[in-house]
Amino acid sequence: MEERERYIRFMAGYAGYFEGLAEGEKDKLDALLSHDLQRMERSIAQQQAVEKKMEQLEELRESLQQAAGFGNMTGQQIIALLNGAEKNELEQAYKRLSDAVASVKFYNQKSMDVCKQNLQLIGSEVVDPAAPPTYSPTQRASEGYTGAKLFDKKI
Known about the structure:
The chain is an all-alpha fold.
């Protein structure tokens, strides 16, 4: 029973952590909109620390969930097993967590939109990580191409 209570208390704190992350994402968006380079750099440095902490908290959540006897259950499955005050407390924690994660995603998407717009303004293009390579040893010039075929020449 103590492990269950510990897990529930942890989830309330976990929700609080993500609520703080949402505020951090809002600050990051504000930094991007300010065009203040030092402020943006601080935001990036903080983001790296946040990601590490998030990994650690997620590992702790998983171990507490296992120790409480909830295994690989979802939040809804865990809530369905509980009664009374425990159920109410965990429902509230999961609701707060869900709202905070939605806010993090929202502000993060807005920040990405601002970054893309800024890159377009300076004439840069957003690099698509899935874009095909521009050259391969077997690639030939496209049909109708009349420019120099440097890579087709034998030296």
